[in-house]
Amino acid sequence: MHVSVIISTLYKRPEEFKECLESIIEQTVRPTEVIIINGSFDGSWEAVNKEFKNIFKKMRDAGIAVKHIPLPGASLPHARNTGAKLGKGDILLFLDDDVVLERDYIKNLIKVYEEYPNAMGVQGFITNRINPNNPLIRFSFLKFLWWLLQRGYYEVNVHRQLPSLSEIIPYRVTRVITRESLSGTNMSYLSGVFKDLKFDERLKRYAIGEDKDFSYRVYKLFPASLYQTPHARLVHREAPTGRLSSKQFETMKQVYHLYLFYKLFDQNTKNKVIYILGRMGDLLLHSILLVTSGFKKERAIKVIYMIEAMWLALSNRNRIKKGEINFWWDEVS
Known about the structure:
Elements: E1 3-9, H1 14-25, E2 33-38, H2 44-61, E3 65-70, H3 76-86, E4 91-95, E5 99-101, H4 105-115, E6 121-126, H5 135-138, H6 140-148, E7 154-156, E8 160-161, E9 167-172, E10 177-179, E11 186-190, H7 210-221, E12 226-236, H8 246-264, H9 269-292, H10 297-315, H11 317-321, H12 328-332
Parallel strand pairs: 1-2, 1-4, 2-3, 6-12, 7-9
Antiparallel strand pairs: 4-11, 5-12, 6-11, 8-9, 10-12
Helix pairs in contact: 1-2, 8-10, 9-10
C-alpha cells in the first residue's frame, strides 16, 4: 500500500518541522510522497525557505516525491482537504508539523490496514502525551469525579468519544484497539473515505475539534472501522509557537464545541446533560487550578475567559446551531 503524507504548516516552528521531515526520511517504509500545505502569510516561509529546500532535495534523493503548495492563510480543514485531493496514495496520513516518528511508524501503520480489512482509519501512539503519574490515573476518586462531570479520563486499551466533546483516552495501549475518533496530530485514512466525506471548512483557522468532527463522522458511517496501534509510535513536541492566544483559544473552543455537539450527537436529554456537565467540569477544573496556584493572575484570567466564552456560545446558540460559527473572531480580535 502506498502512503501520502499531508502536513499543513505556517513555518512558525521550523526546527520542529525539520525534525519531523527528517523522521519521515528515516522511515523503514517510506511514503510515496509528502504534500506540504504552506499556509504562511507573514514572511515565515521566506525566512526559512533556503534550508527547507535543502531538506526537500534530501527527501527527493531518498525517493520521496515532495509537493509544496502555497495556500496563504488557509484554515486547517481547507489545508487538509486540499492535501487529500492531491494525494495519490492508498493511505492518506495527516501529521502535525511538530511530531517525530519512530522509524517503523509507517510500516506498522500499514500493517493494521493489511490485518484489519474493515479499517478506514488508523492512528499511532503518542509516547509523551500522558504522564503515568497523572493524578487521574493514580487516584480513583479523581477518575470518578471526571467521569461524573463527563470531562473524560484515562483507561487501558479503551477509547470513547463523549457528547461533552471530551474523550475516554487510552493512556496505555497494549494491542490494536478500536476508537470512536482520531487525533489530528497523527491520523490516517484510506483515500476512498474522501469520496464520501470532507473536513468541515466552516471551522476556521486552527479549527479546534476538526479532527474529532471528521473522524467521528467516519466512525458513524463505517462503525468499528477506526483503529489505534501501539506499534506506530511518535513524539509530539507541542511547540508553543504558532498557536492561538488564551482568549482566542477558549472562545473558539466553546463556540466550536457547541457547534459540534449540535452537529454530531442526538439532541436528547441524556446527551444535553452530558454536554452541560462537561462545561461545568471544565470550569471546575480551572477553578481548582486557580485556588491551588495561590490565585495566580494567569489562572484567574483563564477562568474569566472561559466564563465569557461559555456565555458567548450560550447566548448565540441558535446561530451556532445553524452553522453560523465565526462571529466569535470579532469578539476577541
